[in-house]
Amino acid sequence: MNIFDLVNATNIAAYWETIAQEQQPFLGETLFPNVRQVGMEMDWLKGASGAPVALAPSAFDSNVVPRGRKGLTKLTQDLAFFKESKYVDEKLRQQLLMLGNSADQTLRDTIIAHIFDDDVELIQGAALRREMIRMEALTTGFAHVSGNGVDMTIDYDMPKENIGASKVAWGDAKGNPFDDFTRITDQIANKTGATISRVLMNRTTWNTLASNDAIKSTLLANAASKTNVVLPKSAIMSYISDEYGLDFAIYDKGYVGTDGKFTKFIPDGKAIFMPAVDLGETHFGTTPEEADLLASSAAQVRIVDTGVAVTTMTKTDPVNVETKVSMMSLPSFEQADSVFILDTTAGATPATSTTGSTSTTTSGSSK
Predict the structure, then answer these.
(1) Which of 150, 134, 170 is nearest to 282 (CA)?
(2) Per residue in 150-180, pLDDT tens?
(3) Domain of life here (predicted)?
């Protein structure tokens, strides 16, 4: 087999699926699991969970009384389309042809692995894009997609009262996170019936919480001195879990943007309070490549990660092979009414529905 023939969608997809098993998935893949759908428009019902309502009594031989689907809001949104490609150009092709006749198997394997790694960057970029959008939705109630002539804003209709600030900043000497825990869990429970049991933040915010005076005073009530005492993370988590039913997740991943700067998915000072259910779904529509080229001899198409199309095409002038990765995807956010976004750096003045960093095209990768 010609070494150049190895660079095709089937082998690239298989290569990605092998190395993906060794990589830790993004948190958003757990909170917003993948689903396939037909078409380019997604529908979802917001507020589809909450406190149960008792079944109405009925007399024998009477007509049933229909129960309305009160509290459900149907939202519709066009899926966003993303695509990018890389080439095996004429110069690289000539190098591959020469290597095809080489007895140096190690060198051949190295070149092939380099090409596959280069193409896999596009698939990783698709996964990163999905996480950027999911995390922006989770931390702001909105998501933005812009670049290459695209400018779209997705409003997840999160209630304004679900975005607020701590009564006193957690880093302040008078800050009391316990008050915020009680206030937020009660607010969501009274409004939707959902039980808040998870809190998501980055390590910087956790360190502020761990060094808070109210936390130390409570957990070190019998200690002779609380000065310069560092509480074990396990002790803090255990206490808050026992007393407030809250489990904490620390998420420090992020991405490198086109400006070369690293941006965390969860900004410093943000704490996201959530119920222990799927918050939504990551929807995948049918890309043009899948719809029109999957059964065509003009290109080879393979689907990875539920709905990401990997397409390889041979071009005659200039002679090269193009590897294109495309997806049509956006997350839904069914549990937006049962999520609270807390700014732990601010005072009692409620925060408005501010938006995070725009999900623009990036050339960097996750960390």
Answers:
(1) 134
(2) 888 999 999 999 999 999 999 999 999 999 9
(3) Bacteria
To the nearest 10°, the Cα dihedral for 185, 188, 192, 195?
-30
Within the chain, residue ranges assigned H as helices are 9-20, 28-31, 90-100, 105-140, 177-192, 203-210, 213-219, 233-244, 288-293
Cβ-based burial of 208 (10 A; exposed 0-12, middle 13-18, buried ≥19) = buried
DSSP 135-195: HHHHHHSEEEEEETTEEEEEE----GGGEEE-SS-TTSTT--HHHHHHHHHHHHHHHH---
Cα–Cα dist 21/127, whole Å: 14
Residue 79 in tokens: 């899926």
What's the one-letter identity of residue 97?
L
If DSSP codes are grouped into helix, strand and coil, which group holds residue 47?
A: coil
CB 230 within 8 A of CB 207: no
Domains of the chain in sequence order = 10-48+78-281+329-360 (3.30.1930.10)
Query: Would the CA dihedral through 268, 270, 271, 277 be positive or negative?
Result: negative
